[in-house]
Amino acid sequence: MSAYVDVFGKPHELPRGVKPTARRSVYGIAVRDGKLLVVVSTWSDKYDLPGGRAREGESDEEALKREFMEETGYCIRLLDDKPLHSFRGCFYANDRGKYFNVKGVHYRVESVGAPDATKIRRDEIRSVSFISLKELSQENCTHVHWPAVQKLLMLQTGK
Description:
This protein has two helices and ten strands. The chain has helices spanning 60-72, 146-157, and strands spanning 3-5, 11-13, 21-32, 35-41, 47-48, 51-53, 75-78, 85-93, 98-112, 125-132. Strands 3, 4, 5, 6, 7, 8, 9 and 10 form an eight-stranded mixed β-sheet that branches. Strands 1-2 form a two-stranded antiparallel sheet. Strand 3 (21-32) and strand 4 (35-41) form a beta hairpin. The mean pLDDT is 93.
């Protein structure tokens, strides 16, 4: 049995006979004036990066543009053809009672224009804001995104 981690970082064992669902996820890293665009979901108090599940047939770019609009109200464009960070993980969705084997990627993106707040899915997103990278820590950032944030910090500081 494998350990699956929920959004709070709590481990869950995959029950015997339960087959996890494969899931491809894409996330965006948008920096403006030295601040990172983050969201806080309705089910967590931690900072999250905008993004989520790519639908069948969607490219990474299409999925990221859709997810960004739904979560932030911003239109975006990709800054790079290749992801900044990629990961694999075992995720347990508390709200659905489902287990997922996730292949995920983080792309650097640029927000374009002003956000359309009417497009934000308020059933999923509590707040959207740009915060200083200095405000982020392993304790207040969702565990899935922390390695990507660290890579971004290394790129920006050269450390």
